[in-house]
Amino acid sequence: MAYQFDNVRVLIVEDNKHMARLVRTLLAAIGLGNIQIARDGTEAFEALQNNSFDLMITDLAMRPIDGLEMTRMIRNSEDSPCPTIPIIMMTGHSERHLVEEARDAGANEFLCKPLTAQNLYQRIVSVVEQPRMFVRTSAFFGPDRRRRVDEAYAGAERRIAAPLAVHA
Amino acid sequence: MSTQFIQPSSSLKQKVGDSSTEEDQLATAALSDALQRLVPELTDHIAADIAILQRIKTPFDMDKLANIYDRAHAVRGLAGSVSKSELGELTDSLCRYIKAVTDPTCIDHQLITAHLDAIALIAHNSEMAGAASIPLITALRNATAKNLKYTKQ
Q1: Is A61 on the interface with B (CB under 8 A)?
Q2: A134–B1: do the CB atoms touch at under 8 Å?
Q3: Is residue B22 part of a domain?
């Protein structure tokens, strides 16, 4: 039994046309044929307002709106058509602060370049098989940033209010 | 505001269904094959960007830096996927430096030229690939870090 990706609609956001072609070709190799490419965050936001997508794969470093800002817009804008769409953030940088920025912007997964078959497929499987609950607080909206329970944590519970479970 | 947990609609999972370990391996193999087929084309694109980089000469201004950044950024993104990680390292170092430059009077022309020369050297000399390139890459990374530390750009 294999994943059936043929009905999955993907938006690739990448300003480098060669990298965009690389990602598109790789996705096509596993059966993803319904793919649209946007060249920056502005174009991506427009595409999201005009079409429905199941998954976004975006570069981080773009101009004028980068992947981080675009993700914040998608998660938080009142006119965002899909605030909970899974977002995989690609970047050539792997510094901790950038991973944390991507997480805090609301990205589901972080994918470091160079792209390999293994790491791209793993990220896709992760958003399919491990969709995290979204968390809304006064300062954040996005996938739950706590991926695991830290049994050793002995400090105060920082989520002071009892969570309210609702459905998107 | 209380913390709300929201269960996103699971349209993706509903659409794709399930997969077995064996099928996951086949999918990964299909991805690898597709990547390998693209290598010649991507290598050509990298070579074209490097050729443009080589034509950009001192003195560098902010417009030239923007052009260098765009080309170096493109090479950095693709290099690792076509087993040219040395070029990825060098262009990464160059991009980090250019990104930090905000004052045109503080541009270190020698440092940029050294990066461009190193990129050309490694791109055109297969014997410079792998371990042979490490001292050069390390030296440029250190020079970049030192420059940014002392100029506090």
Answers
A1: yes
A2: no
A3: no
Residues 6+ apart with CB under 8 A from A50: none
Question: Could you tell me the residue range of the domain that residue B80 belongs to?
Answer: 39-151
Structural domains of chain B, count: 1
Residues 62-91 of A with CB under 8 A from B: 84, 86
DSSP string, A111-160: EESSP-HHHHHHHHHHHHH-PPPEEE-SS-EEE-S--S--TT--S--S--
- ipTM (interface predicted TM): 0.83
The structural domains of chain A, ordered by start, are: 9-143 (3.40.50.2300)
The pTM of the full predicted model, rounded to 2 decimals, is: 0.86
pLDDT in tens, A42-95: 999 999 999 999 999 999 988 888 899 999 999 999 989 999 999 999 987 777
Residues B5-58: tens digit of each pLDDT: 888 876 788 899 999 999 999 999 999 999 999 999 999 999 999 999 999 988
Domain assignment present for residue B1? The answer is: no
Neighboring chain B residues of A125 at a CB cutoff of 8 Å: 19, 24
Pick from B24, B50, B81 the residue to mutate for testing the A interface (most A CBs within 10 Å): B81
